[in-house]
């Protein structure tokens, strides 16, 4: 949920709040979990002729629950963890929009910063329970890309089709690891899948006006790298006052 307003000619600013739920499964480690996420943020944008400048900052709180199953020989154990985390994000973007009748194309460059922190966690269960130290990652991203949109008349209604294609590069903390220990042993480092330094960013979506002040949209966002892939589908209802 969010709201924004025009501050002056071509300049808008707004704020948002939201909730999301994320589920993750790591089959190779027989582990799974979910995160309840709460979001707050501010954003702004300015347009001068074809040139656009945008920026924003957001903060998210995460409540994470995990489950891990251990089995070897005749030993079986189910281990659970419950911990908190937070994410700080900030970005700025410069674009130049070119219009062609009912269509537009915009080359853009985006710079962003992400700080992810997870608290320490003590797993509950048997002898295989782990104690994991808190971790913080600071990563910067640059994205160079092209987005476009066009209006398609359908039964007297202008449906907007939009898409995006870009290249994203990561700097800073790109290796994921956690310092942990068993209750009766020395600590050790477990490495996870690294953040891809170079990924292709793609997106496509459709917006349909329901009334003069209400729009509904559905979109797909994807990131494709050599180590990881991320895919999401979103639905959005926008009401203007």
UniProtKB/TrEMBL annotation:
Residue ranges constituting the Autotransporter domain according to the UniProt record: 1-241
Enzyme class: hydrolase
GO MF annotations in UniProt: peptidase activity
InterPro entries: Autotransporte_beta (IPR005546), Autotransporte_beta_dom_sf (IPR036709), OM_autotransptr_brl_dom (IPR006315)
Name under which the protein is recorded: Extracellular serine protease
GO biological process: proteolysis
Domain of life: Bacteria
Key words, A-Z: Hydrolase, Protease
EC number: 3.4.21.-
A cellular component annotation (GO) from this entry: outer membrane
UniProt keyword DNA damage present: no
Pfam families for the chain: Autotransporter (PF03797)
Position of the signal peptide: none
């Amino acid at each position: 949920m969010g709201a924004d307003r025009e501050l002056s000619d071509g300049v808008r600013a707004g704020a948002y709040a939201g909730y999301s739920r994320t589920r993750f499964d790591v089959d190779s480690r027989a582990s799974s979990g979910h995160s309840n996420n709460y979001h707050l943020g501010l954003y702004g944008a300015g347009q001068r002729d074809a040139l656009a400048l945008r920026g924003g900052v957001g903060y998210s709180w995460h409540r994470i629950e995990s489950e891990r199953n251990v089995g070897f020989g005749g030993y079986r154990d189910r281990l659970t963890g419950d911990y908190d985390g937070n994410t700080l994000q900030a970005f700025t973007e410069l674009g130049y929009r070119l219009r062609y009748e009912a269509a537009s194309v915009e080359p853009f460059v985006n710079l962003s910063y992400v700080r992810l922190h997870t608290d320490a966690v003590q797993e509950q269960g048997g002898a295989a329970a782990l104690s994991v130290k808190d971790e913080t990652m600071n990563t910067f991203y640059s994205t160079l890309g092209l987005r476009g949109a066009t209006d398609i008349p359908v039964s007297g209604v202008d449906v907007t089709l939009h898409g995006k294609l870009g290249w994203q590069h990561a700097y800073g903390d790109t290796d994921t690891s956690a310092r942990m220990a068993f209750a009766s042993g020395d600590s050790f480092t477990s490495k996870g899948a690294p953040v891809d330094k170079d990924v292709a960013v793609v997106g496509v979506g459709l917006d349909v006006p329901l009334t003069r002040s209400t729009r509904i949209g559905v979109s797909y966002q994807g990131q494709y790298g050599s180590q990881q892939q991320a895919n999401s589908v979103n639905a959005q209802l926008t009401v203007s006052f």
